Task: structure prediction
Amino acid sequence: MANGSFRIARNRGGAQLPLALLAALAVALILIGKAQNTLFDRTRAAVTDWAAPALHAARAPLVGLDRFMGSIGEIFSVYQENLRLKDENARLRQWRNAAIVLDDRVKRYQLLLRAVPDPSLSSVMARVIGRSNQPFLQTMILDAGKAQGIKPGQAVIDARGMIGRIFLTGHHTSWVILLTDLNSRIPVTLEPGNVQAIMAGDNTTAPTLDLLSQNVLLKPGAQVVSSGDGGLLPPGLAIGTVIANPSGGFRVVLLADSTSSEDVNVVDFKLKTEKPPAPSPNDLPATAAGLPPAAPPAVQSPVPGGSLAPSGAAAAPPAHAPTMTAPAAATPPSPEGAAVDNGNE
Amino acid sequence: MEHAGSIMGGRVLSSLTPAGLGILGVLIATFPVSFLGGLVPPPLFVFMPLYFWAMVRPDLMTPFWAFALGVFQDFLSGGPPGVWAASFLAAYFLIDRQRDMLAGLSGIGAIAGFAVAALSACLTAYVIVGFYYWHLPPVAPLLVELAMTVLFYIPAVFVIGVIHRRIVGPYRSDF
Result:
């Protein structure tokens, strides 16, 4: 291996000038990308769409080869692995039965309490056709895009837990920023204790935890799920387990393994507007206080030459009227109004 | 006439081979397969043909191609545009200035020369990313990627050498 064995061309072709120009162009690209980070997104999506067939075509044989090479070492431990899986399967069946019973109980409690039901989730299954596991980046390319209803911000999960979220969509490809990426920061809840925290990636395999409260005693082993704060991600998505960081603080060992995920689900989540049930007459303060409901007020004629008074002004009681019953009786309760009033109370 | 067309086609093929291998390197690094279980980042495959032909045949691996491969790498890796383009140009500058010295190396020295060039590209990318996010990323993954790149260059340079002798060299004998 000698570089000198190759005949070296002596004609540099005046490379210095274009080198300087191209370097200036590269710096300009960086600065423009920093100032307008969405400017290149369309180009990136187009490049990905263009490269998708090549990535797709190369995926199958490479994945097959990867599986074959991975299975060579597993042949020798297949018996022990089978026993372990049988044991784990039996335990998981017990947990599944317990989960079904508890899920049913939670639903009944929600019905009794008239709790707002959890928003339903639909998902799109996509295939991983590209993965960037670089020192500065942890991203993934999926073979589903706008054509399949994928939108930026949606959560990406595999069979074990959350992997990341969509940050860019092309026509039939989309980009996932992994939870381990330097730029990933998502609100999470730690159970038990309902502790709120921010999980931040730092390009290592275990993201860090920034607790929102300093007065929390956190223990390794706590479960990390998405909190749903901000309405960007659905609450309750399994993420990982808390471990102590040797250099202080806590980190999260992720349940999902983004390096081996081949098929993932993109969760379509859109938080619906909260609509609590309409209050019945028994919910009115006067009725609750044991007083008879007031009679409906007489309809007022509109002021000649002027506009109708707003409902709040119309509901304003006269100076001599009892202040407790007049507002409730003057305006029929609407769900929205009741919700606001309840909130104020 | 037919012979002339064949030669012309061969020359075009030989001109596009270095850049084509660079594009292939970007695609390979993007494939969702990790034969090492994702424990280490994939090598900078794109830098191998870039270094080789920037040193041996700069007329085939021009600064434009270094820039274009860097932009392609940026776009397909999901990172901010321009980072790897600037990094490859920085390495290209080093190779261009030290070409005679690098070309005279052999054995371990040739690998060390490649390692120095790759280090310059990685360090440039590290500094740019640090400024870009105003937050220094961890150094360890970068060093592992550099080590993997150097390690993979050893077999890759034989393949690249064969391609150079069989495809690029015969049709490009004007130097």
